[in-house]
Every structure is written in structure tokens, then in C-alpha cells.
Amino acid sequence: MRILTFWTGLKKEDRGASAAIGNFDGVHLGHQVVIGIARDAARRLNAPLGILTFEPHPREFFAPAAAPFRLMNAETRANRLDRLGVERLYQLPFDALLAGLTPERFAREVIADGLGLRHVVVGADFRFGKDRQGSAADIESFGKSMGFDVTVAELISVAKGEVSSTNIRNALTEGRPADAARMLGHWHRIDGEVFGGDRRGRELGYPTANMSINRLHPPKFGIYAVKVEVLTGPHRGSYDGAASVGVRPMFGDNKPNLETYIFDFNGDLYGEHLSVALVEYLRPEAKFDSLDALVAQMDADCARARDILASV
Description:
Elements: E1 2-4, E2 18-21, H1 29-45, E3 49-55, H2 58-62, H3 74-83, E4 88-93, H4 96-99, H5 103-112, E5 119-123, E6 127-128, E7 134-135, H6 136-146, E8 149-153, E9 157-158, E10 161-162, H7 165-173, H8 177-184, E11 188-193, H9 200-203, E12 209-212, E13 222-230, E14 237-246, E15 257-262, E16 273-283, H10 291-309
Helix pairs in contact: 5-6, 7-8
């Protein structure tokens, strides 16, 4: 998959795609329907399958001080889209210039002239252009006059209600990763680089890979059974583990992060990139009376996580 962060001066092979447009936060089942329609059109047109999205998320641009809400950072989203067979990821910088384009200018300057898209797929609730003035009906109209085809995909639902990023966030906030996964169509994952920590886990016999959850909607703090993919380096592969999401109350006031203990693993992961999937919530964070009590609980957590992951 080629990731392109501009819409002018593209090479010929990067133009003419059939592309789904949106933020695709979570790449959930609703997003996958939209992408599937774009894929069908790409095959019909013998064109690349593309995604047109934005970084940062427009909500982050307009409200930078708001509480974190994203389900995925740019790396996680790109990894998931690559798995779905996307060939061109147009990840445009959302800045004052892009935010100021009227719907008509966005359609002409970005979609038609800039990227040269041949087919565009959007959700029924799609909004675009300055002040979100443009609608799905508007982009259909612009497509007719500017020479690109448009398909509007209807929203989908599952047994517990509409598939949406909001409902997925609620499930994660409540410690229900399996419910989130049913709406996502995949486990909720946190991807990123492993950074150096204070090595407390190693001293306790549980070395962990530390990753940031900065700017992400935080799942319910606590301990999880997890599936881990090491994406880079000599230890690439899939593993099982247990992870802590939170502030580590046993050791004072800390910035929230993700700490993952990988079962039966021996190696250096500093600087490598991991993808950690939250499978089941085990328990809340807790402060123990002693380190021995903490280790005993970690032993129990890992034993339970192994049992859970053996059947996943």
C-alpha cells in the first residue's frame, strides 16, 4: 500500500483510483461495507483501490484541547487498511487550507483535478467542505458535472444497534472489548513503537513492552488478555499475552499507557512496532499491599489470560 500525503503532482499510477472517503476511525463494519463497494468498482474499472482520509482527524484540528476520542492512530488505521487490500491511502493533512475549501472546491480541486478519482464511495451520513456544508447528495451532483462516479452506502447495524465509532467507544469504556469487536469486525488494536520504561516489570519477573495511548480514546483501565503482533524487527510474529492499560496505581501518579507482557518471549523489543489486540477485560487496576501480592495477582492474571486465549 502506498501512503500519499498530498493531492497535487501525483504520479500517473497514483491517480484514477476507486476510493472510499471518510475518517475511518476504527475501520469498523460500516466502513468495511463502504470499502467493499469501492473495491468492487476498482475491479470493474481496473483501477487501484483507494482510501481518502485525513490526518489529523478534523475534530482534532477544530478542538485540539478536547478529550481524546480516536479509536485508532494513523499507524493502526494504515495497518488495518493495508490488511483489507487498500492500494492507495490518500492521507491528506487536515489544515486551515483544506478546512476552508467549499464543498464544490473540495470536489473539484481534491477529488477531480488533484487525485483524479474515477469512482467515489461515501456513507449516507457523509459531510464535507467548509463548515460541513456538503452532503452525500451534493457529492453525487458534483460527480455528475466533474466526471467521477459516486456510490452512497447505507448505514448498517448489528444486534445491539447501529455500528458507529461512538458505540464502539462506549463498549471499550465499559470494558467490553468483545462487543467492540463485533462492531469493528476485528479486535480493537493499539499499534505503536515500544519505548523504554522504568523496568519495574522486569524486576518483578514480568518484563513489559510499553506503548503510548496518547490522543487515543482510553479503554477501561485494567488488565486484559491480549493478542500481540510484533510488526518489525527480528521477532516478527504473533504472540499471546496480558496487558495493563492505565496509570499503574501501585507506583504513584503516572501517565496512562499500555504495558504488555508477552508469554514465553525472550528478546529486545525497544524501538520495534507492535499491534496489541484487546481480547477480554480481566479486572480493574488495583493498588496492592506489597509487591509479593502484586506478583501473585499477575500470576493469576496470566494464567486466566492463557486459558481465554487458548480458545480464541
